[in-house]
Amino acid sequence: MLVEQQARSVIGVDISEKMLGQAREMTDDPLISYIKMPIEDIDFSDSQFDVVISSLAIRYIKSFETLCKKVYDCLKPGGSFLFSVDHPIFTSRNEQDWYFDD
């Protein structure tokens, strides 16, 4: 999606080789690269990115404040940090699955 929106490059970071493998299968694009590491260990150059996106990963980290500091440092001035988290109603139930209908 980011390449379709004219991103010059995209870096995907995940601790799971399985998730990275699935992402590679879904995106065959030389503008996209993948790094296997915990998000707490990111260490990108200062002011490297226009946008940092985290989808459903923040709840697994130990320190939100530390992560935000790292993200802030690697964002260009005026850059954006977009993230999503699970809604508690989804994770509070024993059965954690999506339900689809017509």
Helix and strand arrangement:
Elements (H helix, E strand, L loop, with lengths): L9 E5 L2 H10 L5 E5 L12 E7 L8 H11 E10 L3 H4 L11
Question: How is this structure best described in words?
Answer:
This protein has helices spanning 17-26, 64-74, 88-91, and strands spanning 10-14, 32-36, 49-55, 75-84. Helices cover 25% and strands 26% of the residues. The chain has a two-stranded parallel ribbon with strand order 1-2. It has two domains: 1-37, no CATH class; 47-92, no CATH class. The protein starts with 9 loop residues before the first strand and ends in an 11-residue tail after the last helix. Helix 2 links the parallel strand 3 and strand 4 (75-84). It contains three helices and four strands. The longest helix is centred in the last third of the chain and has 11 residues, at 64-74. By secondary structure, it is an alpha/beta fold.
Strand order of the largest sheet: 1-2
SSE ordering: EHEEHEH
Shape: globular
Name the structural class: alpha/beta
Low-confidence stretches: none
| Main β sheet profile | 2 strands, parallel
Distance between the termini: 26 Å
Total helical elements: 3
Strand content: 25-35%
The radius of gyration is 15 Å
Count every beta strand, where a strand is a DSSP E run of 2 or more residues. 4
Q: Give the helix level as a range of percent.
A: 10-25%
- The averaged pLDDT comes out at 92
Please tell me the total number of domains: 2
